[in-house]
Amino acid sequence: MLFPKKAKHRKWQRGRTHPDKLGTAVRGAKVSFGSFGLKALSGSRVRSNQIESARVAANRKIGKLGKMWIRIFPDMPFTAKAAEVPMGKGKGDPKGYCVQVKPGRILFEVDGVSEEVAREALRKAGTKLPVKTKVVSREEVDNI
């Protein structure tokens, strides 16, 4: 699973996550490396284990011929309290890392395989993520 080598702070504050106030992605909104990309249509927090399961699902379809790029990296720690613990007594322990995804962000890119294989691989990867997704090609220029 993906996680940063070093973090400045052990625990972060949550930040603002209201879907209407999220805005659209400015960075990482175009297919840059591959021929096809998986674009997020909604915003959410994506955990490192979700990214890993999406990567595995896509790589099984792509095989050894294709190349895949992961365009997001989970660098934000999230915390969770243990089960059946009463309210209060401080914040929970760090549980893992996640990334805040905005609508319009390219999550994965694929190259070196046919269009049908690339679209099917990215579709399968999209089912593993908590955001609505759409497969786009390099030629397609559209806003979310």
Automatic annotation (TrEMBL):
Where does the record place the region Disordered? Answer: 1-21
Query: PROSITE patterns under this entry?
Result: RIBOSOMAL_L16_1 (PS00586)
What is this protein's name? Large ribosomal subunit protein uL16
Q: Which SUPFAM superfamilies match?
A: Ribosomal protein L16p/L10e
Its gene?
rplP
What lineage is this protein's organism placed in? Bacteria, Candidatus Campbelliibacteriota
Sorted alphabetically, the Gene Ontology cellular component annotations on this record are: cytosolic large ribosomal subunit
Family stated for the protein in its record: Belongs to the universal ribosomal protein uL16 family.
Coiled coil, from the record: none
